[in-house]
Amino acid sequence: MNSATALIPREKSKYLRNTKELNAFRKFAVAYVVALYVLPQYFGVPNPVFDLTAVRITIIALLLLIITDYKRSHDFMDVILKEKVGLLLIPYIVVLVYTMVLRADVNAFLNPFVEFLELYLLIYLIKDTFGVDGMIRLIMACIYVLIFLGFVEIVMGTSPFSYLETIDGIYTGRFVRGGHYRIMSCASHSLGYGLMLVTMLPFCGYDLETKEYNVFRRPILLILMMVNVFQTGSRSTLGVSFAEIALMFILSDRKYLKANVIYLLTGLVAFGMALVVGFKTAFGNYVMLQITSLIDSLFNTTYSVAYGADLLQLRQSKAYRDLLKEIYHVDWVNPLLGLGRKRAFRSLVNGRVVKSIDNFYIAEFVRYAYPGMFAYIFFLAGMGISMVRDFFRTRSGITRLALIGGIMYCLNIKVVDSLQTFKYLYVLIALYICEEKTPFVPAVSEDHSKYIKKEKSYFARYK
Fold first, then answer.
1. CA-CA distance, 61 to 207, in Å (whole number)?
2. Distance (Å, whole) CA 109 – CA 115
3. Paired residues of 53 in beta bridges
4. Which of 4, 70, 222, 305 is most buried as measured by Cβ atoms within 10 A of its Cβ?
């Protein structure tokens, strides 16, 4: 009897220990996602060799908890070895390895490797800890926090995240264009926050309860996010966001079409009336400046001058982007072996000094030459084709969310560099990979179903 009762506390303590371990792992998992979205890259522990940002600290903690647990380590290795996304990455990883060796540049491999590690960690956490719906709820909470703080930033005229700067050399300070402050949130640049917003916009349309997709599922959040988009002062983000909402409208479930047309027309009329009423206010002028600057960039017009734009600056911006295309023909980049990542970029292109490359694909050509650029495009295209195929096969709301955000992000980085925002694209990819891909079965109308039943009973009598 004594031996039997002696077993009880041991079993109980083992159960409690496992429960505590699970809770601890979940807390670190939540901290990782929150750090990924909400905490800036300049917040962490400075280190002369490898800065320990908040994201990296949570990654290290999660990896330690995974490695020290047999089941977790086994499951994590299964994710790495069995997920087909790894096959698409193999050509790119090969380029990373030989660039690291031939250019003696560890960062040429390490920087993308950490981002891919984030992708696999996200896949594992969704499968093991959160589930797809749980991950979306957590992301939505982070989105609401960022959007709210975006309005705080508009009022403050500086990023509230700037007070978290503990690592030097990343935070670049306030951005002002034409006398207007450009919000940047937790990103290191207004363009970086714009890329984040592009990946977050599609979440407005996903319904967690019905699993359907509807562009106006969360209209208030959609409006607030677009205000944040305008306040970034980024023409590319604004144009891509308009296109993104159009794609969200097109890919919404058909049963919402009539209502959405009414909502869209009503929204456009209300927006137009608001501009008319506030035409002579600072807010109205700023909105018109952003819209006309976008039109001028697309069609080479000069409408934005009437709202205070610098015509010379607009033309120089367009000329600069056209100049970047000439980098494909310069002699200081070997077409088979790029420069890697250790060199700070600054060079001459057609006699003009180029200090930064506002085009991810061209920047990737400089870093890894044609093999690296095409290998990464192969990865993006492979994921896109897979999403399109599964969209037609499953009509999944998650696939639509990931496809819309992925397409628009890849379009946006044609005019800006990635600015360390690929992790937000990888969130979309991880959600897509982890969703349950159930084939779509068209609904049978009630009258048609009665006909089928009658037909079956008719044949049953004459079997």
1. 33
2. 10
3. 44
4. 222
How many whole angstroms separate alpha carbon 41 and alpha carbon 168? 10
Q: Distance between CA atoms of 59 and 311, rounded to whole angstroms? A: 46
For the record, the structure tokens of 258 come out as 């009539």
AA letter at 387: M
Structure tokens at 141: 């909470």
Q: Which residues contact 5 (CB under 8 A, 6 or more apart)?
A: none
Report how far residue 293's alpha carbon sits from residue 239's, in angstroms, rounded to the nearest whole number. Answer: 10
Longest dimension (CA), the chain: 92
What is the C-alpha separation between 232 and 286, in angstroms, rounded?
12
Listed in sequence order, the residues at least 6 apart from 386 whose beta carbon sits closer than 8 Å to its beta carbon are none
CA nearest to 36, candidates 410, 332, 428, 449: 428
Who contacts 54 (Cβ-Cβ below 8 Å, separation ≥6)? 35, 39, 43, 44
In the block, tokens 């047309």 appear at 261
Q: Going residue by residue through the chain, which has 463 residues, state the pLDDT in tens, using 9 for 90 and above.
A: 444 444 334 444 444 447 777 788 999 999 999 999 999 999 999 877 677 899 999 999 999 999 999 999 999 999 999 999 999 999 999 999 999 999 999 999 999 999 999 999 999 999 999 999 999 999 999 999 999 999 999 999 999 999 999 998 888 888 887 778 999 999 989 999 999 999 999 999 999 999 999 999 999 999 999 999 999 999 999 999 999 999 999 999 999 999 999 999 999 999 888 888 877 788 788 888 899 888 888 888 888 888 887 777 777 777 888 888 889 988 888 999 999 987 666 777 877 878 788 899 999 999 999 999 999 999 999 999 999 999 999 999 999 999 999 999 999 999 999 999 999 999 999 999 999 888 877 765 444 444 444 444 443 444 4
Question: What does R_g of the chain's alpha carbons equal in angstroms?
Answer: 25
pTM of the model: 0.89
Which tokens belong to 276?
């008319």
Give the three-state DSSP class for 334: coil
Question: At 311, which amino acid appears?
Answer: L
Angle between helices 70-82 and 54-67 (to 10 degrees): 110
Alpha carbons 22 and 8: distance in angstroms, whole number:
21
Contact, 425 vs 405, CB < 8 A?
yes
